[in-house]
Amino acid sequence: MPRSKPPYVEAFRDRHGKLRLYFRKDKGPRVPLPGPIGSEEFLSAYQGALAGRIVKVAPKRPVATPGSIEALIQSYKKSADYIGLRDTTKDGYRRRLEIIRVEHGHRMVAGLTHGRIVKAFLDPLADKPGAALDTLKKLRILIRRAIVLGWLSSDPSVAIRRPKIGEIRSWTDDEIAQFEAHWPVGSKQRLAYALQLFTGQRRSDVHRMTWADVKGDRIRVVQQKTGAKIDIPLHIELREVLAQTARQHATILNTEYGKPFTVDGYSGFMRDAITAAGLPLDAQPHGLRKAAGRRLAEAGCSPHEIMAVLGHSTLAEAERYTREADRAGLSTGAITKLEGWKKNKPAQTAS
Q1: Over the Cα atoms of the chain, what is R_g?
Q2: Phi then psi dihedrals of residue 49, to 5 deg
Q3: What is the pTM of this model?
């Protein structure tokens, strides 16, 4: 360190012996400065402090070991595949990749084998199948990147089975009636329920709906997850609920403080409403979207009609609802035929 420090710079060593540098003018606040004195980082922060700007000093992360999983994550984040993701999707990727980096970033990519992936990455998450599945998905994305970079010649995860997770089920008609009986029209809980059931949209879209989205007897939604633009007629029951809702804010749904819900805040609000109505734990908010699709199918809607309402991008997603409805209808017809066959069959008499 030079013998003379620039004006207003304080320097001392902490209990670990590390040199700490601060800018402090007169009795103003102490602003941390990066070292060493005279470096480009120091001069930039020092000039900013002189001008009255507080420059945040980002902690330096150690350079990743070449060929490590951390280095692979850094490479993937610079790729077009990652940069091109939607912001909401990128947030989910970033959280899982950071967990992988913290827990496994020191491991070498070349050492990834079927057994090591199962033992080190998936077995610790045996009681969390959702997290295990997401970890496996992100690992396979990283492995494809490693193959492009020439760090791996084949995919060691190819024979690993996807962890099984329980699928969120549709609400039954009895559960729908029970919720409506508990939460009358005019309550915020009934409003949120009606928006989700009668538009069939995800919670990430319902909590963002605004009065400007309602045009006459239709509501327009740009889905956050897919970017799909949906234009849906308002169901008569939803129109009745909206007619009894005061238009006090831009968003239709708001907290008790008059602020729009966050996704997690909306989920917690609905979870409390569902519990108060006496419904079981597996009756989840997303089950209302499933119920919307089920009811559309049972009403005889085609897969393309269901796609137009729910915003599905593939026929396979919409056909899942129609298959379930067809199965129920076919089973009813089958039993009816069986009863008729048994009734009309001549009785056997003893010889």
Answers
A1: 29
A2: -65, -40
A3: 0.60
